[in-house]
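# step 3/5: fold
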Amino acid sequence: MAAPTRARSEVPGPRGRRNPSAPLPGGDPRRVPRPAVGVGPFLLASLAAVAALLCTYLFFVRTTTGQYIDESALVEATELYGAAGKASLRFLDFLPALSVALALGALGYAALVRRRWAASAVALAAALCANLATQLLKNDVLTRPYRGIETYMENSLPSGHTTLAASAAAAVFLVASPRWRPLVAFAGGTYAVATGVSTLVNQWHRPADVVSAFLVVAVFMAPAAWLVLRTGMGWNVWDGFGRHVGSSRLWLALPTAAGLAAAGVAVVALVRIAPLAGREVSTTNYFWAGLAFIVISGYLVAVGASWLMAHASRSGR
């Protein structure tokens, strides 16, 4: 009787080397193990958001110039209040329920259908922490001193509505498949920016309040992103931009273009009110500059998140 033949994967190659046709550990002959995701870039992003949040507060709340700029944008919003204001007000009325429904729907799908339990739990915890931090900062930590500017003296930084919208969008972004994340980042960033602009148009919040909300969300979502990648390395893999409609570079180009256009609007508005001879009296220039500030910061956070996650979840092939 002939001796039993060993399995193909057990047949040694020449001179005792592994048979090149045998599968690698893990079953996929094309894939090599990926190194662990480093926490450094995510911590750096979180610390940068903390620094930006502190600078925003110190300038726009603690200084006379900053208060004047911020308050002027809020006052000038009355010039545009009309059909746009009424539409954005209706949007804000539905915003809390809409944000919670979107976030819970996406997290529930990711956990129950895609089996991404850890990612869903991390994203939910980060969103809750961001909203709790916003309320603590606004009501118990940060104060608004009187600097000679006629304004509502209660501190309103950061914006609670904007934090809710941005954290819901960020939670969906974290549990999305890597190939869909660039598109989700653009859509979520647009949703958050629209929320911030609506609070300004309706005179609920100053521009700095909105920008600070974006930064609070970034503070918590950056380390949460690392945890999602670290605990879900099996599904957090992709082959780069352009391989899928959801990962097209268009989703980076669009927010970048919007940010650059907003920067141009801000420059024009600020030049018109610069302290030079013959400057014109501002009627809406501060408003447009503040709106541009919101658009730039919101899309900057979205593009940064998309790029950081794409780089960290690159394929190990």
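# step 4/5: annotate
Residues 60 and 284 are 19 Å apart (CA to CA).
# step 5/5: archive (pending)
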